Amino acid sequence: MMLSILLLMFVVGLVLLNKGSDWFVESCQRIAEKMHVSPFIVGFFGVAISTSLPEIASTLYAAYKGVGGIAVGNIVGSNIANIGLVFGIGMLGIRSMKVTRSERGGELEMLAITLLWSIFIFSGRFISRVEGFVSLLLFILYFYLWYNKEKKRRASEMKRKKVRANKLARKELALLYFGSVFVIFGAQLVVNSAAMIADALGITHTFIGMTAVAVGTSLPELFTTIAAMRKHYYELLVGDIVGSNVVNLLLALGGAAILRPMVVDFCGMVSTINMILITVIFTLMTLHKRYTRWEGIILLSLYFVFMYAAYVTA
């Protein structure tokens, strides 16, 4: 198949995947609000899950199709891109940004989860179903702890009152249906075309997953970051990066490992080390309580250095 056609398939798949994710999450948010579900759950699903949905769908489908290199490369590459590319670009738009206590939270947990997954990957260069189940259990625990924390914080702000659930409109159900369809077909197009592009160019599945697929599925995080910077929603900016990276590792890669255990190649091993390094640097910057434009330049530069390292080891 001609390379131009494969590239067109890849781009169309990304458009379907990202647009379908938007519709799916928008419908879920509206349904949750009409059913009077907790604001925290709506917010968590609307930000962390929504921006990670392209990664989740494409990673699960890649594992199902047996192209574990794309699955691992996509998650490792997306987490590097979220910090180095997305957050780095966001920091270029400011001179200095003070990080208050309310705008921090979850960075140490993200670092711990990153280190845990690194242990999984380095212990035999193989990701097993057991490790996948451990990840899903940790995701449930992570969600439970944050839900309780948010519930206590809102207890003094919200008055309890009995409400009746509203009827669901056809628009929400239509968005839910078509969003699901777009996500499914978009994931199929992205993964299948990416695998064929890698084979046609003679590069590894892990490398194509870390670059083209990872950047494509990280577009929601990039758009969210740009919007947050324009409106000075710094809490959303940091929270989106942290939440997305945690969801990528625990839910997306954990679920993929349950579907099919995966072997990690040399490119994936090197990139995992780079993921640890950039996560440590991001965490130290956060604990420093201030972000600067120079730190954004450093993160962005590291991203391109790490992508070059992935290319060399592919």
How does the SSE layout of this entry go?
Elements: H1 3-34, H2 39-65, H3 68-92, E1 96-98, H4 107-122, E2 126-127, H5 129-155, H6 170-201, H7 205-217, H8 219-230, H9 234-259, E3 262-263, H10 266-287, E4 290-292, H11 293-313
Antiparallel strand pairs: 1-4, 2-3
Helix pairs in contact: 1-2, 1-6, 2-3, 2-6, 2-8, 2-9, 3-7, 3-8, 3-9, 3-10, 3-11, 4-9, 4-10, 5-9, 6-7, 8-9, 10-11
Strands of the biggest beta sheet: in what spatial order? 1-4
Largest sheet: 2 strands, antiparallel
Helix-strand string: HHHEHEHHHHHEHEH
Assembly state (oligomeric): single chain
What is the CATH superfamily label?
Answer: NCX, central ion-binding region
Uncertain stretches: 158-165
| Percentage of residues assigned to helices | over 70%
Summed up, the helix count is 11
Would you kindly provide a written description of the structure presented here, covering whatever features stand out?
With 314 residues, the chain is mainly alpha-helical. It has a single domain, classed as A middle domain of Talin 1. 81% of the residues lie in helices and 3% in strands. It has 11 helices and 4 strands, in the order αααβαβαααααβαβα. A two-stranded antiparallel sheet has the order 1-4. Helix 3 (68-92) runs parallel beside helix 8 (219-230) and helix 3 (68-92) packs antiparallel against helix 11 (293-313). The chain is globular and about 50 Å long. The model is unreliable at 158-165 (pLDDT under 50).
Quick structural gist:
Helix content is 81%, strand content 3%. With 314 residues, the protein is mainly alpha-helical. It has a two-stranded antiparallel ribbon. A two-stranded antiparallel sheet has the order 2-3.
